[in-house]
C-alpha cells in the first residue's frame, strides 16, 4: 500500500513541476512581449 501512495505522490509531484515550468515560461514570455510593446511605444512618443 505504501508503494502505491509513494508512486501516486511522485507522479503528482512530477506533473505539478511540469505545470509550474509552463506557467513560468508563459509569465516570462508575456513580460518580454510587454517590454517590446513599451519600447516601441516609447520610440513613437519620442519622435
Features:
47 residues, 96% helix
Proportion of helical residues: over 70%
The geometry reads as: rod-shaped
Return the structural class. Answer: mainly alpha
Rg value: 21 Å
Distance between the first and last residues' Cα: 70 Å
Note the main sheet: none
List the uncertain runs. none
Average residue-wise pLDDT? 94
The fraction of residues in strands falls at under 5%
Succession of helices and strands:
H
In DSSP terms (H or I, runs of 4 or more residues), the helix count works out at: 1
Per DSSP E runs of 2 or more residues, the count of β-strands stands at 0
Describe the structure.
The protein is an all-alpha fold and 47 residues long. It is 96% helix and 0% strand. It contains one helix and no strands. It has one helix at 2-46. The chain is rod-shaped and about 70 Å long. The mean pLDDT is 94.
Reconstruct the topology from this structure:
Blueprint: H1 2-46
Q: Short description, anyone?
A:
The protein has one helix at 2-46. The termini are far apart. The longest helix is centred in the middle third of the chain and has 45 residues, at 2-46.
Amino acid at each position: 500500500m505504501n508503494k502505491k501512495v509513494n508512486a501516486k505522490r511522485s507522479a503528482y509531484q512530477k506533473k505539478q513541476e511540469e505545470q509550474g515550468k509552463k506557467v513560468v515560461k508563459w509569465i516570462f514570455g508575456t513580460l518580454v512581449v510587454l517590454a517590446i510593446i513599451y519600447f516601441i511605444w516609447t520610440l513613437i512618443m519620442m519622435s
